[in-house]
Automatic annotation (TrEMBL):
Pfam families, per database record: Ribosomal_S21
Gene that this sequence comes from: rpsU
UniProt keyword annotations, A-Z: Ribonucleoprotein, Ribosomal protein
Name of the protein this chain belongs to: Small ribosomal subunit protein bS21
Ribosomal protein recorded as keyword: yes
Family stated for the protein in its record: Belongs to the bacterial ribosomal protein bS21 family.
Any GO molecular function: structural constituent of ribosome
Superkingdom, taxonomy of origin: Bacteria
Length: 78
């Protein structure tokens, strides 16, 4: 993973790096690998992730069909 530092602004580059790592799921993977996970806990976690994924897809589909309002865009000043 690569992040460019512009104008010696290391703080901003670090924020960008953390955001990229979060998006890729690296923090979650590091936490999972730090300790042993019992097979029963793994099944429960994977089942919960699948349910979350299905609900998210259903919510997005309903928003596209107009049954739910679209999320409001946050406008951040630069």
């Amino acid at each position: 993973m690569q992040v460019l530092v512009r104008d010696n602004n290391v703080d901003q580059a670090l924020r960008v790096l953390k955001k990229k790592m979060q998006r890729e799921g690296l923090f979650r993977e590091m936490k999972a690998r730090s300790a042993y996970e019992k097979p029963s806990e793994k099944r429960v976690r994977e089942k919960a992730e699948a349910v979350r994924r299905v609900r998210k897809l259903a919510r997005k589909k309903m928003q596209r069909e107009g049954l739910l309002p679209m999320p409001k865009k946050v406008v951040r000043p630069r």
